Amino acid sequence: MVVRGLAGLAGLLAVLEVLPRTPLVSADYLPPASTIGRAFWHLLGEGTFWSALGDTLTGWGTGLAIAVLAGVAAGVVIGSVPVLRAATASTIEFLRPIPSVALIPVAVLLYGTDLRSKLLLVVYASFWQVLVQVLAGLQDADPVAQDTARSYRLGTWGRIRYVLWPTALPYVMTGVRLAATVALVLAVTAELVIGAPGLGQQLAVAQTSGAVPEVYALVLTTGLIGVAVNLAARAVEHRVLHWHQSQRGESQAR
What we know:
The protein has about 250 residues and is mostly helical. Helices cover about 80% and strands about 0% of the residues. It has helices spanning about 1-20, 35-45, 45-80, 80-95, 105-110, 115-140, 145-150, 155-195, 200-210, 210-240, 245-254.
């Protein structure tokens, strides 16, 4: 599978190298892959690039950590109390579909263009990914196991620890993996639109100054970060859920 993936990537690079040299696409708007590669290599030698990368990763990591902690805590509390779950269902369904980008004016009004604006958007978008998965996981808990726990007079914490949490954990990890990707998208979007420090801001500067190869090099950078985030999230998920049937089946498939 890895060989096929590398073959596909090599094919894409070949197309990007040849296509700008044909009349179909102007090299002014789509430089050859070799030109983009040189621009990317040049970026790696600039301190501003690494500073922007650090700002992006800081916003992404901090926002994701806040969203995961808040989503798990809120999900466990709401999902463990049926009355509270029923009372909050309509509120969650109202707030969850609101696109985070619609909150950009609010973020700018509240915090200007600093890190807090980025965090507001990242946390809002990522929080729902985790919360919804935690609620789904708790709802999927075996009723017989819950009744058995009650018959043994396990307290609330005991039922959460030994019955609800093991069932919800695979859902939680799915939510964290989805939230990690969404957080990166919102971090770069906030930098690009608001002008918060980071790769998105560098991308906007390169675009306005007509540095087309640098634009594609920065897009390539965000893509590589996305791949790294996804691989890291899957590795963590596999490690945490090594006992779960889904991960054992995946290992055997490899």
